[in-house]
Inverse folding.
C-alpha cells in the first residue's frame, strides 16, 4: 500500500513540474501561504502560550487552579457534555429523516438546520433571554415552577445546544444520502428489525461522518462565546464558561491569568485538530477501499 | 411456494406503475418478468417482497394474504440489482447476517451458522473469499455473494431484480448457466426481472411480458416467441421487419406483400401491420410468389450468419438474416435485385 501511494505521488509531482507554473511562482505562492499561516495562526497561538508562561510555571498553574477558573472549566465541559449528545441524537434523527424519507417540509427542515450558522450568536442568545426572561413568553411559567433558565446553567446549555446543532446533522446527511436505502432494505428482507438494522447496517456506514460531526460540534460547544455571553449573566464561579472567564480576566488587566486560561482552550482546540486529522485519515482510507471496487479482481 | 398476484395496481402520484396486474407463479417455477425499463417490473417484484405496498389488489403466498405481512416475515430472498451488500462486513458476515439477526430462540448456534455459511459459499463457489470485503470483489463475485446471502435464510421464494444487468457479457453468460443449474438443483420458486429478452427466454420456464404497467403476455418462452400476443411483444423480443397496410375480404395487403388473411373475412377495411423477423425471410433470384423484389444495399458476414439489408421499391429498408449456406447459394452482392419472400408473417390489426 505504502509503495503504491509513494509511486503515485511521485508521478503527480513529475507531471506537475512539466505542466504548471515556473519554480519561482511556486516558491512565491508557497511562501505567501506559509507566511500568512505563520502571521495569523502560528504567531497568535504561540503568543497565547508564551504570555501564559511569562510569569513562570508556578503562576501558570496557580491561575488555572484558581477556583473560578476551575468552575468555568467544569461548566464548559458540562455544557459540551450535554450539548454534544443531544445534538448527536437530533442530528441522526434529522439526517435519517432527510436522507431516507420523502415528506412535506423536507426542504424547510434542511434549510432550518442551517439557521444557527446564519444568525449571529448574539441573537441566538437573545432569543433565549426573550423566551425565558422575566418578560419572556415562557418566563412567568418558568418562574412559577421555580426553574431558573436565563442567567443560570440551563440557559447556557440551551444556548450551546442551539449554536452547535447543525454540525452533526450536516456531516451525516450527505453520508446517509450517498449510502441510500438499499442496504437497509436488504437487512429488512433478511429478517432484521428496525433497531438491528440501525445498529448493524446504518450506523457502521455513517460512523466516520458521525465522529467528524461530533468533533466539530464539540469544538464549537466549548468555544462558544457570543450566545452564551448573553444568557450567562457572568456570575463568577457559577455561570462563567471558559471563554467568558478569559474575557473577565482580560478586562481586569489580569493578562497572565487570561492567557493561562486561554491556553486551556487553545489546548482543547489542538487536541480537537489532532483527533480530526486522525479521523480524516481513516475516512480517506475507507474511501480508498471503496475506490478499490473500481478495480475488481478477476473472478 | 406458489405466489398468486391478483389485480395489483400501484400509482405514484399521477403515474400508474402497475395497472390491474394478475398472474400466478407455480411451485418450483423459474419465472421471468420481462419488459422495458420503467415498465413496472421492479415495482411488482418489490410489492411481492413487501418493500412496497400496492394501492389495490392482493398477493397470496400459498393462498395466504401476504400484503399486510412485514417483509421480514414473508420468507422471501431478494437479490438487489446493485446487490446491496453490506460494505462494512466481510463476505462471510454478509451471508451470516440473516441468521445472526434472528430472535434468540430461533438463532442457530455459532457452529451451525459457520457450517451453513460455508456450505452456501461453496454452493456459489466462493468459499475461498469469506474474509474479503465486497469492495474487493468483482461484479460476478458480488452477485454470487448476494445470492448466497439471500439463500441463507432458507427463503420459500427467491426474487432477483435484474440479476445480471450490471455484468459484462461473458460473466453474464456464465452466471446465467450457473443460475439455471442451481435452480435445477434446489427447485426454489424464483422470479427474476429483466429487460433482456435473450436472458428471459434462455433462463425461465415461463415469461411474463410487462409494458407500461400491464401484462402483454404470459406464457412459456416458446409461446412468447412463436405466438406473440401483441405487436409490442413482437417488437420487444427482437429485431423485426414491419409491413404496414390493411386487411379486408380475407386478404392482407401490406405494402408490397399480399397474403391470405382468413381471420378477417369482413368487407370492412382495417389498418393492420405484418411482422416478420430477419431470419424468417428467404432470398432467391426468381419470383416464387408471395414476396417482393428488392435491391441489396448491404451485406455483412457476422460469424455463422450473414446479415443483409435490402430496400423495396419505395426505398423502405428490410433486414434479412441468412445462414452461411443459404447465402452461398445465391451470393447476391450490393446493387443486385433479389426476390424476398417471408416464410412467416404475423398480422395484427390496429386500432379498435
Amino acid at each position: 500500500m505504502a509503495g503504491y501511494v509513494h509511486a503515485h505521488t511521485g508521478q503527480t509531482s513529475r507531471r506537475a513540474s512539466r505542466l504548471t507554473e515556473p519554480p519561482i511562482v511556486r516558491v512565491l505562492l508557497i511562501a505567501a501561504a506559509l507566511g500568512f499561516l505563520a502571521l495569523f495562526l502560528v504567531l497568535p497561538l504561540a503568543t497565547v502560550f508564551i504570555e501564559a508562561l511569562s510569569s513562570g510555571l508556578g503562576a501558570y498553574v496557580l491561575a488555572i487552579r484558581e477556583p473560578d477558573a476551575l468552575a468555568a472549566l467544569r461548566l464548559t465541559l458540562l455544557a459540551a457534555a450535554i450539548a454534544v449528545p443531544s445534538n448527536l441524537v437530533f442530528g441522526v434523527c434529522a439526517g435519517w429523516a432527510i436522507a431516507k424519507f420523502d415528506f412535506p417540509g423536507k426542504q424547510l427542515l434542511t434549510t432550518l438546520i442551517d439557521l444557527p450558522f446564519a444568525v449571529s450568536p448574539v441573537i441566538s442568545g437573545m432569543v433565549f433571554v426573550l423566551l425565558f426572561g422575566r418578560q419572556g413568553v415562557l418566563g412567568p411559567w418558568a418562574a412559577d415552577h421555580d426553574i431558573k433558565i436565563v442567567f443560570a446553567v440551563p440557559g447556557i446549555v440551551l444556548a450551546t445546544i442551539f449554536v452547535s446543532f447543525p454540525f452533526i446533522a450536516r456531516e451525516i446527511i450527505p453520508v446517509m444520502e450517498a449510502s441510500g436505502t438499499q442496504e437497509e432494505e436488504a437487512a429488512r428482507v433478511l429478517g432484521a428489525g428496525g433497531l438491528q438494522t440501525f445498529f448493524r447496517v446504518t450506523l457502521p456506514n455513517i460512523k466516520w461522518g458521525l465522529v467528524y460531526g461530533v468533533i466539530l460540534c464539540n469544538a464549537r460547544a466549548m468555544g462558544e462565546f457570543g450566545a452564551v455571553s448573553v444568557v450567562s449573566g457572568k456570575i463568577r464561579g457559577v455561570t462563567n464558561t471558559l471563554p467568558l472567564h478569559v474575557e473577565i480576566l482580560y478586562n481586569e488587566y489580569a493578562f497572565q491569568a487570561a492567557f493561562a486560561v486561554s491556553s486551556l482552550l487553545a489546548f482543547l482546540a489542538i487536541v480537537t485538530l489532532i483527533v480530526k486529522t486522525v479521523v480524516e485519515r481513516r475516512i480517506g482510507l475507507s474511501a480508498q477501499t471503496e475506490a478499490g471496487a473500481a478495480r475488481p479482481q478477476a473472478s | 411456494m406458489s405466489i398468486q398476484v391478483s389485480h395489483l395496481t400501484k400509482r405514484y402520484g399521477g403515474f400508474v406503475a402497475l395497472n390491474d396486474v394478475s398472474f400466478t407463479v407455480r411451485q418450483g417455477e423459474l419465472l421471468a418478468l420481462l419488459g422495458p425499463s420503467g415498465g413496472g417490473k421492479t415495482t411488482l417484484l418489490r410489492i411481492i417482497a413487501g418493500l412496497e405496498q400496492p394501492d389495490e389488489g392482493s398477493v397470496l403466498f400459498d393462498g395466504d394474504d401476504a400484503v399486510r405481512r412485514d417483509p421480514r416475515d414473508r420468507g422471501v430472498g431478494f437479490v438487489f440489482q446493485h446487490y446491496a451488500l453490506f460494505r462494512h462486513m466481510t463476505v462471510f458476515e454478509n451471508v451470516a447476517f440473516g441468521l445472526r439477526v434472528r430472535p434468540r430462540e430461533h438463532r442457530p448456534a455459532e457452529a451451525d451458522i459457520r457450517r451453513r455459511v460455508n456450505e452456501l459459499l461453496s454452493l456459489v463457489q466462493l468459499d475461498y473469499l469469506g474474509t474479503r470485503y465486497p469492495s474487493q470483489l468483482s461484479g460476478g463475485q458480488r452477485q454470487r455473494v448476494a445470492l448466497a446471502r439471500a439463500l441463507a435464510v432458507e427463503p420459500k421464494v427467491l426474487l432477483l431484480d435484474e440479476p445480471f444487468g450490471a455484468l459484462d457479457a461473458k460473466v453474464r453468460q456464465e452466471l446465467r448457466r450457473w443460475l439455471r443449474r442451481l435452480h435445477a438443483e434446489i427447485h426454489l420458486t424464483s422470479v427474476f426481472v429483466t429487460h433482456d429478452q435473450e436472458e428471459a427466454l434462455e433462463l425461465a420456464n415461463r415469461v411474463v411480458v410487462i409494458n407500461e404497467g400491464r401484462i402483454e403476455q404470459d406464457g412459456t418462452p416458446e409461446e412468447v416467441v412463436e405466438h406473440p400476443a401483441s405487436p409490442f411483444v413482437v417488437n420487444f423480443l427482437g429485431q423485426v421487419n414491419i409491413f404496414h397496410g390493411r386487411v379486408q375480404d380475407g386478404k392482407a395487403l401490406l405494402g408490397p406483400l399480399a397474403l391470405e388473411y382468413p381471420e378477417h373475412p369482413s368487407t370492412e377495411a382495417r389498418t393492420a401491420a405484418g411482422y416478420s423477423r430477419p431470419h424468417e425471410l428467404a432470398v432467391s433470384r426468381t419470383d416464387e410468389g408471395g414476396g417482393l423484389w428488392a435491391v441489396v444495399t448491404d451485406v455483412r458476414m457476422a460469424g455463422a450468419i450473414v446479415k443483409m439489408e435490402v430496400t423495396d421499391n419505395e426505398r423502405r429498408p428490410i433486414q434479412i438474416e441468412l445462414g452461411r449456406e443459404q447465402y452461398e447459394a445465391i451470393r447476391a452482392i450490393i446493387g443486385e435485385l433479389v426476390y424476398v419472400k417471408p416464410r412467416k408473417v404475423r398480422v395484427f390489426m390496429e386500432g379498435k
